[in-house]
Amino acid sequence: MFWLPDEDTGSIILTPAPVSIAADSTHISLPGRPLDLPTEQSLHILHDLSNGQRLHLAFPVDGSPGRPLVAVIPLGIEGFDRMEAVARLLASLHGRAIPPDTRLTRQQLARARRMLQAVDGHRAGASQREIAKVIFRLKSVRRDDWQSAPERYATTDLIKDGLAMIAGGYRKLLRHRRRP
Questions:
Q1: Domain range holding 80?
Q2: 68, 93, 118 — which closes off a domain?
Q3: Mean pLDDT (whole number) for 126-139
Q4: What is the distance between the alpha carbons of residues 112 and 9, in angstroms, rounded to a whole number?
């Protein structure tokens, strides 16, 4: 069995089923494309769902090829996210409607996109004013008006948050928000 870090809640860990379960299970092949992450212990594939989403699956290398597979879900708080991923995988494998991925709302996804656009502009040497013109579709803004424009502060936040996402904060995108 292969365990991925707890931070990687977007992955589903698959292992051969115990004999007691294997007798009652049907074997389903999992089409997917290999990732560039094979290790001595596991094989990784991306399984395309019919709704445009993909799931990252990890298989043990030494597993029996003809034996049915089971999903391993750690009982930590990330288990809820993994259970949703397993539900999407099962729906895909059995031709059912695939439940939506609820980790990001439409607004959060749009903000993440804007963050990456802002960082791209920042790294390319664009000024914050130029970045804001593109992201917020602003017309020409006078210098004095720019100093107090809400888009100026929003652009600063997008760049700061985008850099934090690139520095490792992207892992938060894989988890649901949880209240302490």
A1: 11-93
A2: 93
A3: 92
A4: 18
